[in-house]
Amino acid sequence: MVVPSLKLQDLIEEIRGAKTQAQEREVIQKECAHIRASFRDGDPLHRHRQLAKLLYVHMLGYPAHFGQMECLKLIASPRFTDKRVGYLGAMLLLDERQDAHLLITNSIKNDLSQGIQAVQGLALCTLSTMGSAEMCRDLATEVEKLLLQPSSYVRKKAVLTAVHMIRKVPELSNIFLPPCAQLLHERHHGILLGTITLITELCERSPAALKHFRKVVPQLVKILRTLVTTGYSTEHSISGVSDPFLQVRILRLLRILGRNHEESSETMNDLLAQVATNTDTSRNAGSAVLFETVLTIMDIRSAPGLRVLAVNILGRFLLNNDKNIRYVALTSLLRMVQSDHSAVQRHRPTVVECLREPDASLSRRALELSLALVNSSNVRAMTQELQSFLESCPPDLRADCASGILLAAERFAPTKRWHIDTILRVLTTAGIYVRDDAVANLTQLIGGAQELHAYSVRRLYSALAEDISQQPLVQVAAWCIGEYGDLLLEGSCEETEPLQVEEEEVLALLEKVLQSHMSQPATRGYALTALMKLSTRLRGDSNRIRQVVSIYGSCLDVELQQRAVEYNTLFQKYDHMRAAILEKMPLVERGGSQVDGEAKESKEAQLSETALVSTEPQASKLLDLLDLLDGTSGDAQPPPPLDPSPGGALVHLLDLPGAPPPPPSIPNLRVFEREGLQLNLSFVRPSGTPALLLIMVTATNTSGADVTHFICQAAVPKSFQLQLQAPSGDTLPAQGGLPVTQLLRILNPNKAPLRLKLRLTYNHFGQSVQEIFEGNWDFSLLVHQGLYLTHGVAKVRCIQVHLEQRLLFISSREHQLPGTTLRHKTSYFLQPQWAQL
């Protein structure tokens, strides 16, 4: 016995009455089988009922694709009941990813040309919902005709369909320009709201439309003034605000029309002032209108007094109880800091109070705005507030807060002592959250302030004695004690309280750092080096230091073990040179680029090797190595031999006019610029390695907001070898602060044209940005074809080298160059980062 098909209401009741999901699936499967059978039989009278049930099944998440063709049949039917269900099915079951949707184009065109409003409304709704670009191009003229139909019902739907068409196919904007001017005179709320939306879409996508609609600015101002003064209609008022949706739409359109246009901005200035002063902010609808007014004022060329009024409105928003309104106010003020810094400064106390908000998003925005408000006049007060916030802020904000305080102190520090005190307090409070370059910056700052050496070492010693858990603080303190330990023991400093420290106490404190389980390997390295330096600064016996150093000669950490072995060797074999090697670190000039250092190293290595050349046959033995680097054949001409005479060698060393000309310099390139963020590339070619190119990436920020979480990534083809050095930081301070640099080392043994792809990711003005761009350069122009390799025995005098507190000592080792049978013996300074010279 065949079970009859259920009606839609009965199907809904049976599905809702199912106690388990299995029962629900069984009911739906049975009914879908009946629906398929009915479709195969071709019953025209009950087809719309079967499709209605199938649409309900589709809404529950079950497959209903077999009803797509039935939708086309119902749309082509002359009966309204069939068309209604057919169009509804087309909106639910069809989209532009399926070719079947193109089959209803002729049916929609025929229905649009009919005079039945209900059918025209169905066709327009379907077209605005799932119309593809092809359908929009074919039906644009029919929709344009309906924009001027007498029926307001059809015109409203036609306007909304035109908005969809412009979003899909912006080239159709010329078709809808003439009707829009007439539709602005409409009194119907729906038509006027749709027309404003349509004009906004046209202006955003077409410069010609933007120029065309600037003529209607007075009319838009008149409409908005009527809304503010007399109201549009009481049925569209919300919480006493006359039609806020229409007001917001008009304000957005005015913002687009007045941007970078003096005449249009002048026309709307008085109206914006009227809206800003007469709108009630006690309700959410009024706040929405007022916020849109503020955005319009800040985006057009408004009067200075009007901009101050906009900032004051945002200041009132900060006092609102609604967290969303406060968040919007903080975000808007952050965008306005650069253009209206003095006006935003008036609300600094309120912004600082928002730091204590329990909501994480509010406190983060308040922190960003507070850091942007710091300048030379308020740096002391703002830094004190930020340091107070740092002590109690959530852990996820400590890194940003600490980095912001350090950047502000570096830019606006009134005195060096205040700068040092500020960094010390940050390191004491949140040392584990500071940036990686904080230790290097503080050591460089202390080293450059000779008059503050005694003060700094006492402050750091006292902080270290209280807490050894903050690793950056411990590293700076160990460095400072190692450099200026003699000043610590003198006990006389006018700027601090009298502090008497014994040698045994200093050594015990450094040993405590070495033995602490909280100390990182790098921190132990600082402490071990500090002990080594104190061996020349303390007046007592250095046996205790020698015993501690010898203990770490068998440490499991390779870096620490190597340091200890080197220091033990210095005690045992070169004790007479220890005092000269462990002298105080010389002052390093700030701002020196890493590229210059790499180039200088390469040049010095080449000069030292060139001075060792004695005979021409020895140089000819290195042709195989030259072939490996240059990729040339064995028939290639060898490089011209150097003059073996002492005078010729001296000319080559000193680069006098008689020497070979240096390789041509490569100009710097600016590869990226957006909203104040610039990325420049500078190139250096090491003379001793023609296939190597050093690229220094320098990022600067001239905007009014900090660029945070800055990451630069690079990629090259497989024929290249790329090595990315660690960047100098990940935050670019606003208004031309300290740049971020990163070194790229690219080896190109095949001398192929260089293809370099860069990807930048960063946060700017509260938004996450990602940029990818590629550059092509002829690498043969960036490398120096000449190559001179030398060999021999080099006798190197003992010199003092300071680099990241790593002591280098004299050693001797025999090396064999790859690809040759030549051996050379060289005395050199051994450093952990360099395996060979």
UniProtKB/TrEMBL annotation:
SMART domains: Alpha_adaptinC2 (SM00809). It comes from the Eukaryota. Pfam families: Adaptin_N, Alpha_adaptinC2. Signal peptide: none annotated. It is a peripheral membrane protein. Keywords: Cytoplasmic vesicle, Golgi apparatus, Membrane, Protein transport, Transport. Residues 664-779 form the GAE domain. Residues 592-613, 629-648 are annotated as: Disordered. InterPro entries: Adaptor_Complx_Large_Subunit, AP1_complex_gsu, ARM-like, ARM-type_fold, Clathrin/coatomer_adapt-like_N, Clathrin_a/b/g-adaptin_app_Ig, Clathrin_app_Ig-like_sf, GAE_dom. It is found in: Cytoplasmic vesicle membrane; Endomembrane system; Golgi apparatus. The keyword Protein transport applies. SUPFAM superfamilies: ARM repeat, Clathrin adaptor appendage domain. Residues 597-606 have a biased composition (Basic and acidic residues). Its main location: membrane. Belongs to the adaptor complexes large subunit family. PANTHER family: ADAPTIN, ALPHA/GAMMA/EPSILON. This is AP-1 complex subunit gamma. The lineage of its organism: Eukaryota, Metazoa, Chordata, Craniata, Vertebrata.
